[in-house]
Amino acid sequence: MNGLDDLFGALASFGLYLSASGTVTPDAKTLDTGSVFKVVATNYQIEITHIAIYARDTYDFIGDQYLGHWNKNGVEVIFNYILEEKIGILAPRDYQPSGYPPDMKLPVGNWSFNEYRKKHSKGGDLLIFSDLKTIRLKRPLRYNITSRQVAQLS
Asked: What's the burial of 110, exposed, middle or buried (CB within 10 Å: 0-12/13-18/19+)?
């Protein structure tokens, strides 16, 4: 094996993202403007108490991308598969033998999913998010920001 596995096949170009949670406290003055109370603040303290990390990935099945040779036990990526297919060393992508050994790996690519869609009128591109892994910070991070800086963010 060349260091690639089913995880790489499933998540090859995924992104890791970070999210923060905590509190925002204004140095507010509450004004009574008739029947409405309005909070006027010039400065805010942001306190980050937790961070969370998650993965985001898309499966879009565009083009003719080769995704490896697969069977029920896993995947093997053969980098020169396209060349070898042309000179007949490996089974071509449309090769579906009857009575083949169950451990035989067959080529799978975006074409496999697109052919399935056409045949069964099911399936589509999808966006996937992992579960959040949340960590409580030992010491909260504190930042001060002005109302002008807040306005620039909007």
From this structure: middle
Domain boundaries along the sequence of the chain: 14-55+133-148, 61-124
Q: Tokens representing 112?
A: 């496999």
DSSP bridge partners of 3: none
| Tens of each residue's pLDDT in the chain, 154 residues | 456 666 666 666 788 999 999 998 888 765 556 666 666 778 888 999 999 999 998 877 888 777 778 888 888 776 665 555 554 545 555 555 566 666 777 788 888 888 888 888 887 777 889 999 999 999 999 999 888 887 787 6
Burial label, 120 (beta-carbon count in 10 A; 0-12, 13-18, 19+): exposed
Contacts of 139 (CB under 8 A, 6+ apart): none
Please, are residues 11 and 57 in contact by the beta-carbon 8 Å criterion?
yes
Q: Give the predicted TM-score (pTM) of the model.
A: 0.52
